[in-house]
Amino acid sequence: MATLGIELCDAAFQAASSQNNEVQCLTVADAGGVADWPGFAYFDGQKFAFGRAGEDQWFVHPRRVAHTFWARLAHEPSTIGPAGRLAPFSELAFHFFREFMERASRAAPSEKVVLAVPGAYLKDPATEEEKIGLLLGIMGELKLPLTGVVDMACAALCDPRAHGFNPALPVVVVDLHLEGADITLLATEERLERKDFIHLPQSGYAQLLKHLTGTMGNRFLRHTAFDILEDGRIEQTFFRQTKDFLLGGAAELRFQINTASRAYELLAKREQLASDSQAFVATLVQGLQTFLHNSAHTAEPCTIALTDRAARLPGLEHRLRAAGFHRLLRLPAGAAACGAARLGDTRFDLAADLADVPVETAVPLSLARRSAAAAWEARLQKMRATGTARPSPTHVILDGIGTAIGSSGRFTIGVAGVGADVALPDAFNSADDCAIPLVREGGRLWFVDTTVSRASGAPAAPTAPAARTAVEAGDRLTIRCGTVSADVLFAHCPAANGSRAHD
User: Fold this and answer.
1) Is the four-CA dihedral 69, 71, 32, 246 of positive or negative sign?
2) Out of 3.30.160.620, 3.30.420.40, 3.40.50.12780, 3.40.50.720, which CATH number does the structure's domain 163-329 have?
3) What is the pTM of this model?
4) Taking a C-beta distance cutoff of 8 angstroms, is the pair 494, 502 a contact?
5) Is beta strand 112-117 parallel, antiparallel or unpaired with respect to 252-258?
6) 3-state class of 196 per DSSP?
7) Are 5 and 101 in contact (CB under 8 A)?
8) Which tens digit of pLDDT belongs to each residue from 416-436?
């Protein structure tokens, strides 16, 4: 049974298919043969056009184009529609989605559909009820076999094509939509779970592309004495070239405008795009820093995972490293679509009623794309049974030095680069993701084995939770990396007054 994963990002809708745990991105071409589905709608007075066909009229007929209907999904009226009746945002979304799904279904027939939705749809119960309710209504009207709805950032980290992340560290996913940027903080124990979220308005592709079209247009004017603003069709052509330059990754692009009398050209460098994007990128990074500073779930260090859309911002990665974010992960294009398809293939079943379709902001850790490059393993060796219960440890001992575990919920043993509570010897530094979490829960200390299938890189069983073993005084944790090994001993040290020595 094939599953279709849909990435509901209005910057560019994406689709993927998964069957028997084999995932592939799909090419969904529109009526013009273009595989590009930005969230635009255009009304010419008679009929609607969606996706690339709508975007191609943005500068030509700006008052007949809408591009906020996915971000503002509701029954409220939009700005376009037949005379005397403005089409609601939900109606535009319905027609857009119907056209996209008709073509996606042709590309890969499927029996299940999973939606990866923007984090803003799930920011609070009221918003979730409204927007997910409208999505369920659209799916029901189109008679599509919806089996699950999952947070987009969560789905993106389940893409089997992606490079893995260190499950012992928080992961922050940065993504761009047309009307803003989404920043999602996720943490892992047995599950990959969304912990915090923020939407940054005015940090989306629509604002950036309008800005870059203007700055490049001004540069074109200075170089050629031709003003692209004299005709909306010319400005639209210039916008298309600007967008292709931004997303294409080329080092340079020759802008060309042809009129009835002559041709105008400008050779632009990518460094100029980066310069024009500086303020936009700085605002985004500042928003990220503020978000992490204010979040109650932040821990240092963390991994910053950039969606393909975000990673294409010129200068963003450099700015992040300059701000102290050194653990960067770039996700493939269509990561959320592929992750959603995989989740549907391995986790979600057809529901008898749309009201029973699960809405997920967490998935089993075994389904996330954890780092598998470093060759290290950790094994807990239990002390032989003595017939008497052993106390929970208060200290760990490494190389003859004891460190108090403390009473907090989490304690990490690992390489220095992951900000561990106990740092392993320098000989382990080649395993830069080596981090072994100990979790205090229910009055006991637990060893969480996140190393399942690391050596081979093969995914764990889809339904298998991370292994947990209670740790007691006298147990030994053996950590190996190649020919290097270390033993961590667990000890119970009573304080002088008879109380437990946690600090």
Assistant:
1) positive
2) 3.30.420.40
3) 0.76
4) no
5) unpaired
6) strand
7) no
8) 766 788 999 988 877 777 888
